[in-house]
Amino acid sequence: xxxxxxxxxxxxxxxxxxxxxxxxxxxxxxxxxxxxxxxxxxxxxxxxxxxxxxxxxxxxxxxxxxxxxxxxxxxxxxxxxxxxxxxxxxxxxxxxxxxxxxxxxxxxxxxxxxxxxxxxxxxxxxxxxxxxxxxxxxxxxxxxxxxxxxxxxxxxxxxxxxxxxxxxxxxxxxxxxxxxxxxxxxxxxxxxxxxxxxxxxxxxxxxxxxxxxxxxxxxxxxxxxx
Length: 226
Ligand SMILES: Nc1ncnc2c1ncn2[C@@H]1O[C@H](COP(=O)(O)OP(=O)(O)OP(=O)(O)O)[C@@H](O)[C@H]1O
Ligand SMILES: [Mg+2]
Hints:
This protein has a single domain (6-225), classed as Rossmann fold. 35% of the residues lie in helices and 28% in strands. The protein is built from seven helices and ten strands. It has a six-stranded mixed beta sheet with strand order 6-7-8-3-9-10, with helices on both faces. The mean pLDDT is 94. The chain binds adenosine-5'-triphosphate and magnesium ion (MG). Adenosine-5'-triphosphate binds at residues 16, 18, 23, 25, 43, 45-51, 205.
Protein backbone atom coordinates (compact mmCIF):
# COMPACT_ATOMS: atom_id res chain seq x y z
CA UNK A 1 0.00 0.00 0.00
CA UNK A 2 1.16 3.50 -0.76
CA UNK A 3 -1.29 5.35 1.44
CA UNK A 4 1.44 7.09 3.40
CA UNK A 5 2.63 9.06 0.36
CA UNK A 6 1.49 12.64 -0.10
CA UNK A 7 1.97 15.55 -2.46
CA UNK A 8 1.77 18.86 -0.61
CA UNK A 9 1.33 22.28 -2.17
CA UNK A 10 2.29 24.88 0.40
CA UNK A 11 1.20 28.45 -0.54
CA UNK A 12 2.06 27.88 -4.20
CA UNK A 13 1.82 30.76 -6.64
CA UNK A 14 2.76 30.84 -10.30
CA UNK A 15 2.93 33.93 -12.49
CA UNK A 16 4.00 34.26 -16.11
CA UNK A 17 5.43 37.45 -17.49
CA UNK A 18 4.98 38.28 -21.15
CA UNK A 19 6.46 41.64 -22.06
CA UNK A 20 5.03 44.15 -19.62
CA UNK A 21 2.17 41.91 -18.58
CA UNK A 22 2.26 39.49 -15.67
CA UNK A 23 -0.53 36.98 -15.21
CA UNK A 24 -0.99 35.12 -11.95
CA UNK A 25 -2.17 31.63 -12.78
CA UNK A 26 -1.92 30.02 -9.33
CA UNK A 27 -2.46 32.22 -6.31
CA UNK A 28 -1.35 31.03 -2.88
CA UNK A 29 -2.64 27.50 -3.34
CA UNK A 30 -2.34 25.10 -0.40
CA UNK A 31 -3.53 21.51 -0.66
CA UNK A 32 -2.54 17.94 0.22
CA UNK A 33 -3.03 15.07 -2.24
CA UNK A 34 -3.02 11.62 -0.61
CA UNK A 35 -2.01 8.39 -2.30
CA UNK A 36 -4.99 6.05 -2.25
CA UNK A 37 -7.45 8.69 -3.50
CA UNK A 38 -8.44 9.98 -6.91
CA UNK A 39 -8.72 13.67 -7.79
CA UNK A 40 -10.09 15.56 -10.77
CA UNK A 41 -8.69 19.03 -11.44
CA UNK A 42 -11.28 20.87 -13.49
CA UNK A 43 -11.74 24.49 -14.54
CA UNK A 44 -12.11 26.62 -17.64
CA UNK A 45 -9.54 26.60 -20.41
CA UNK A 46 -6.62 28.76 -19.22
CA UNK A 47 -7.49 28.33 -15.52
CA UNK A 48 -4.09 26.74 -14.85
CA UNK A 49 -4.73 22.97 -14.82
CA UNK A 50 -1.69 22.08 -16.92
CA UNK A 51 0.45 24.61 -15.06
CA UNK A 52 -0.48 22.93 -11.78
CA UNK A 53 0.29 19.45 -13.15
CA UNK A 54 3.71 20.62 -14.38
CA UNK A 55 4.48 22.11 -10.97
CA UNK A 56 3.40 18.94 -9.14
CA UNK A 57 5.74 16.73 -11.13
CA UNK A 58 8.64 19.19 -11.00
CA UNK A 59 8.67 19.98 -14.73
CA UNK A 60 8.03 23.62 -13.78
CA UNK A 61 8.77 25.58 -10.60
CA UNK A 62 6.46 27.82 -8.58
CA UNK A 63 7.13 31.56 -8.46
CA UNK A 64 6.41 31.34 -4.73
CA UNK A 65 5.70 28.57 -2.26
CA UNK A 66 6.88 24.99 -1.88
CA UNK A 67 5.97 21.58 -3.29
CA UNK A 68 6.71 18.48 -1.26
CA UNK A 69 6.54 14.82 -2.10
CA UNK A 70 6.40 13.30 1.39
CA UNK A 71 9.03 15.38 3.13
CA UNK A 72 11.11 16.09 0.05
CA UNK A 73 11.11 19.55 -1.51
CA UNK A 74 10.90 18.53 -5.16
CA UNK A 75 12.22 21.89 -6.41
CA UNK A 76 15.55 21.20 -4.75
CA UNK A 77 16.20 18.14 -6.94
CA UNK A 78 19.04 18.22 -9.44
CA UNK A 79 18.48 16.66 -12.88
CA UNK A 80 19.54 13.17 -11.77
CA UNK A 81 17.39 13.26 -8.62
CA UNK A 82 14.38 14.52 -10.61
CA UNK A 83 14.67 11.73 -13.11
CA UNK A 84 14.99 9.15 -10.28
CA UNK A 85 11.96 10.72 -8.57
CA UNK A 86 9.85 10.57 -11.74
CA UNK A 87 10.86 6.99 -12.52
CA UNK A 88 10.08 5.77 -9.02
CA UNK A 89 7.22 7.86 -7.69
CA UNK A 90 5.20 9.50 -10.45
CA UNK A 91 3.74 8.16 -13.65
CA UNK A 92 2.89 10.83 -16.23
CA UNK A 93 0.24 10.65 -18.95
CA UNK A 94 -0.61 13.46 -21.36
CA UNK A 95 -3.30 14.17 -23.96
CA UNK A 96 -1.01 12.79 -26.68
CA UNK A 97 0.25 9.26 -25.94
CA UNK A 98 3.83 10.34 -26.89
CA UNK A 99 4.96 6.77 -27.54
CA UNK A 100 8.52 6.38 -28.82
CA UNK A 101 8.15 5.44 -32.46
CA UNK A 102 11.64 3.90 -32.65
CA UNK A 103 10.40 1.19 -30.27
CA UNK A 104 7.69 -1.47 -30.51
CA UNK A 105 4.56 -1.32 -28.36
CA UNK A 106 5.97 -3.72 -25.75
CA UNK A 107 9.33 -1.91 -25.63
CA UNK A 108 7.47 1.31 -24.84
CA UNK A 109 5.71 -0.42 -21.93
CA UNK A 110 8.93 -1.88 -20.47
CA UNK A 111 11.01 1.30 -20.79
CA UNK A 112 10.92 2.41 -17.15
CA UNK A 113 11.76 -1.12 -16.02
CA UNK A 114 14.88 -1.15 -18.18
CA UNK A 115 15.89 2.29 -16.86
CA UNK A 116 15.77 1.10 -13.25
CA UNK A 117 17.70 -2.07 -14.00
CA UNK A 118 15.28 -4.93 -14.78
CA UNK A 119 16.71 -7.73 -16.91
CA UNK A 120 15.32 -7.45 -20.47
CA UNK A 121 13.52 -10.85 -20.26
CA UNK A 122 11.99 -10.02 -16.89
CA UNK A 123 10.77 -6.60 -18.08
CA UNK A 124 9.42 -8.16 -21.29
CA UNK A 125 7.44 -10.80 -19.37
CA UNK A 126 5.94 -8.20 -17.05
CA UNK A 127 5.04 -5.86 -19.95
CA UNK A 128 3.34 -8.73 -21.79
CA UNK A 129 1.18 -9.48 -18.75
CA UNK A 130 0.14 -5.82 -18.60
CA UNK A 131 -0.70 -5.78 -22.31
CA UNK A 132 -2.73 -9.01 -21.92
CA UNK A 133 -4.76 -7.38 -19.16
CA UNK A 134 -5.84 -4.54 -21.45
CA UNK A 135 -6.44 -6.78 -24.47
CA UNK A 136 -3.40 -5.61 -26.46
CA UNK A 137 -1.06 -8.62 -26.20
CA UNK A 138 -1.50 -9.32 -29.94
CA UNK A 139 -0.16 -5.81 -30.68
CA UNK A 140 3.00 -6.23 -28.55
CA UNK A 141 5.48 -6.30 -31.45
CA UNK A 142 3.73 -3.77 -33.64
CA UNK A 143 4.78 -0.23 -34.37
CA UNK A 144 2.95 2.20 -32.00
CA UNK A 145 1.52 4.15 -34.97
CA UNK A 146 -0.34 1.08 -36.18
CA UNK A 147 -2.60 1.32 -33.08
CA UNK A 148 -5.71 3.48 -32.70
CA UNK A 149 -5.56 6.61 -30.51
CA UNK A 150 -7.35 4.84 -27.64
CA UNK A 151 -5.06 1.80 -27.91
CA UNK A 152 -1.97 4.05 -27.92
CA UNK A 153 -3.24 5.82 -24.82
CA UNK A 154 -3.67 2.45 -23.04
CA UNK A 155 -0.04 1.67 -23.90
CA UNK A 156 1.04 5.10 -22.55
CA UNK A 157 -0.77 4.31 -19.28
CA UNK A 158 0.92 0.92 -18.96
CA UNK A 159 4.29 2.61 -19.59
CA UNK A 160 3.57 5.16 -16.85
CA UNK A 161 2.46 2.45 -14.40
CA UNK A 162 5.13 -0.18 -15.10
CA UNK A 163 6.94 0.46 -11.77
CA UNK A 164 3.72 0.79 -9.73
CA UNK A 165 4.31 4.43 -8.78
CA UNK A 166 2.57 5.90 -5.69
CA UNK A 167 1.05 8.62 -7.92
CA UNK A 168 -0.17 8.96 -11.48
CA UNK A 169 -0.63 12.45 -12.94
CA UNK A 170 -2.64 12.65 -16.15
CA UNK A 171 -3.29 15.87 -18.09
CA UNK A 172 -6.42 15.53 -20.29
CA UNK A 173 -5.81 11.79 -20.89
CA UNK A 174 -9.12 11.43 -22.75
CA UNK A 175 -8.89 14.75 -24.62
CA UNK A 176 -8.35 13.13 -28.04
CA UNK A 177 -10.78 10.25 -27.59
CA UNK A 178 -14.48 9.67 -28.15
CA UNK A 179 -16.73 8.86 -25.16
CA UNK A 180 -16.36 5.10 -25.41
CA UNK A 181 -12.56 5.08 -25.75
CA UNK A 182 -12.42 7.71 -22.99
CA UNK A 183 -14.48 5.50 -20.68
CA UNK A 184 -12.07 2.60 -21.23
CA UNK A 185 -9.16 4.85 -20.20
CA UNK A 186 -10.95 6.16 -17.09
CA UNK A 187 -11.95 2.64 -16.00
CA UNK A 188 -8.38 1.44 -16.50
CA UNK A 189 -6.94 4.30 -14.43
CA UNK A 190 -9.50 3.73 -11.63
CA UNK A 191 -8.77 0.01 -11.60
CA UNK A 192 -5.02 0.58 -11.14
CA UNK A 193 -5.72 3.33 -8.60
CA UNK A 194 -7.55 0.80 -6.42
CA UNK A 195 -5.16 -2.09 -7.10
CA UNK A 196 -2.24 -0.64 -5.17
CA UNK A 197 -3.76 2.37 -3.45
CA UNK A 198 -2.22 4.79 -5.92
CA UNK A 199 -2.92 8.51 -5.85
CA UNK A 200 -4.54 9.55 -9.13
CA UNK A 201 -4.66 13.20 -10.21
CA UNK A 202 -6.37 13.94 -13.52
CA UNK A 203 -6.71 17.37 -15.10
CA UNK A 204 -9.73 17.27 -17.38
CA UNK A 205 -12.57 19.17 -19.01
CA UNK A 206 -14.47 15.93 -19.30
CA UNK A 207 -17.45 15.60 -16.92
CA UNK A 208 -17.32 11.80 -17.30
CA UNK A 209 -13.76 11.84 -15.91
CA UNK A 210 -14.59 14.16 -13.02
CA UNK A 211 -17.57 12.02 -12.00
CA UNK A 212 -15.40 8.95 -11.66
CA UNK A 213 -12.95 10.55 -9.18
CA UNK A 214 -13.27 10.65 -5.36
CA UNK A 215 -12.64 14.40 -5.13
CA UNK A 216 -13.30 17.16 -7.68
CA UNK A 217 -11.25 20.36 -7.38
CA UNK A 218 -12.21 23.28 -9.63
CA UNK A 219 -9.54 25.85 -10.38
CA UNK A 220 -10.80 29.41 -10.57
CA UNK A 221 -8.87 32.66 -10.11
CA UNK A 222 -5.74 30.75 -9.14
CA UNK A 223 -7.23 28.66 -6.36
CA UNK A 224 -9.53 25.71 -5.74
CA UNK A 225 -13.24 26.41 -5.25
CA UNK A 226 -14.01 23.54 -2.89
N1 LIG B 1 5.06 29.09 -20.48
C1 LIG B 1 4.10 30.02 -20.40
N2 LIG B 1 4.36 31.33 -20.64
C2 LIG B 1 3.39 32.27 -20.53
N3 LIG B 1 2.11 31.99 -20.18
C3 LIG B 1 1.81 30.70 -19.93
C4 LIG B 1 2.77 29.65 -20.03
N4 LIG B 1 2.15 28.48 -19.72
C5 LIG B 1 0.88 28.79 -19.46
N5 LIG B 1 0.66 30.12 -19.58
C6 LIG B 1 -0.61 30.80 -19.35
O1 LIG B 1 -1.13 30.38 -18.11
C7 LIG B 1 -2.55 30.23 -18.16
C8 LIG B 1 -2.94 28.83 -17.75
O2 LIG B 1 -2.53 27.92 -18.76
P1 LIG B 1 -2.74 26.36 -18.61
O3 LIG B 1 -2.17 25.72 -19.80
O4 LIG B 1 -2.24 25.91 -17.28
O5 LIG B 1 -4.35 26.26 -18.59
P2 LIG B 1 -5.29 24.99 -18.66
O6 LIG B 1 -6.29 25.13 -17.55
O7 LIG B 1 -4.48 23.76 -18.69
O8 LIG B 1 -6.05 25.21 -20.05
P3 LIG B 1 -6.62 24.11 -21.10
O9 LIG B 1 -7.91 23.63 -20.48
O10 LIG B 1 -6.87 24.91 -22.33
O11 LIG B 1 -5.62 23.03 -21.26
C9 LIG B 1 -2.95 30.61 -19.58
O12 LIG B 1 -3.38 31.94 -19.58
C10 LIG B 1 -1.67 30.45 -20.37
O13 LIG B 1 -1.62 31.33 -21.46
MG1 LIG C 1 -4.22 22.20 -20.09
